[in-house]
Amino acid sequence: MEEKTILSLPFVQGFIRLTDDAFRQGWHERNGGNLSYRLTPEEVSQAKPYFTQDGDFCPIGASTPNLAGEYFMVTGSGKYFRNVILEPQNNAAIIEIDQTGENYRIVWGLEQGGRPTSELPSHLMNHSVKKEVTNGAHRVILHSHITNLIALTFVLPLEDEVFTRELWEMATECPVVFPDGVGVVGWMVPGGHDIAVATSELMKKYDVAVWAHHGAFCSGPDFDTTFGLMHTVEKSAEILVKVLSMGGKRQTITTQNFRDLAKDFHVTLPERFLK
Ligand code: 2HA
Ligand code: ZN
Predict the structure, then answer these.
(1) Distance 213 CA to ligand 2 centre (A)
(2) How far apart are CA 133 and CA 125, in angstroms?
(3) In this predicted structure, what is the pLDDT of residue 2?
(4) How far, in Å, CA of 254 to CA of 182, rounded?
(5) Does the beta carbon of 192 sit less than 6 angstroms from any atom of ligand 1?
(6) Nearest ligand, CA 191
(7) Which residue owns the Cα nearest ligand 1 atom 1?
(8) Cβ neighbours of residue 142 under 8 Å, at least 6 residues apart?
(9) pLDDT, tens digit, for every residue of 79-94?
(10) CA neighbours closer than 13 Å in the CB half-sphere of residue 166
């Protein structure tokens, strides 16, 4: 009989599959992007027998009290999405948050050394906000360098209203997939506390935060939904880049069309995006 390992657990398989799918989309050059997943209590019980490390706790660089005692699977800092499927144990880790919500330690993975993603403060502050506003439903945070969306941040005004409306107009399904819209963070130094605060502030309202000239963060309840959200946003951005490259819109989805769509699909679209 084949020996059972932590790698056979469904949440680990889901994590690996997402990193591979996202790499193949071209969103994760070199060590670009990062992924984190908040384990359920059942998954923690299933994974615990395979934990191999219990070193010292170190500072997260953010305070996330409502994440005290939680466990996350995360990609490693400087590690490539390309390599997660080949050697998950060296490119990803499971971390435990201490009882103050201010420190973490690695309990599994990064076996050849390393640290969790350089964007750990943003990931954990986003998880903290999303755990609260979704009553624990959201578990996945994905940061990707999605090409066409990045391109648009050089051309469109960096405003929530503009990005939301333009992305919605590029594909009829968009307002149904992200009815709350998207938020935009102007250019900031990545990796630190300030960009984490700005992003998590947007996550109170949106499931998508654009980082100007850098990429996007998406939040969701599971791997499929979160990957699908990033995929939909990037597809819409790609259409907009093509439309702009062909000389711009000659016709589009109108405000009234959005109102009709919202009614039939039972979604509420904020009025400020329907001007
Ligand atoms: O290289 O994407 O934002 C990892 C990153 C930093
Ligand atoms: Zn990045």
Answers:
(1) 10
(2) 12
(3) 63
(4) 19
(5) no
(6) 1
(7) 32
(8) 18, 22, 33, 34, 35, 217, 218, 219, 220, 226, 227, 230
(9) 999 999 999 999 999 9
(10) 26
d(CA 188, CA 184): 11
Q: What value does the mean pLDDT take over residues 50-60?
A: 96
Whether the model clears a pTM of 0.85, i.e. scores above it, the answer is yes
Catalytic residue among 119, 169, 234, 238: 119
Q: What is the pLDDT of residue 3?
A: 72
Residue 239 has pLDDT above 80, yes or no: yes
Strands (DSSP E) contained in 8-91 are: 34-38, 58-59, 71-75
14 pocket-lining for ligand 1 (C-beta < 6 Å): no
pLDDT value for 4 = 84
Please indicate whether residue 119 is annotated as part of the active site: yes
- Distance of alpha carbon 180 from alpha carbon 229, whole angstroms: 12
Query: Environment class of residue 262 by beta-carbon count within 10 Å: exposed (0-12), middle (13-18) or buried (19+)?
Result: middle
Per-residue tokens: 172: 């009829």
Measured on CA atoms in the order 119, 120, 125, 128, is the torsion positive or negative?
positive
Strand 215-220 and strand 140-144: the pairing is antiparallel
End-to-end CA distance of the chain: 63
Contact 139, 11 (CB under 8 A): no
Strand ordering across the sheet containing 71-75? 58-59, 103-109, 92-97, 71-75, 34-38, 140-144, 215-220, 208-211, 183-185
Q: What does the radius of gyration of the chain's CA atoms come to, in whole angstroms?
A: 19
Assess contact for 66 and 38: CB atoms under 8 A. no
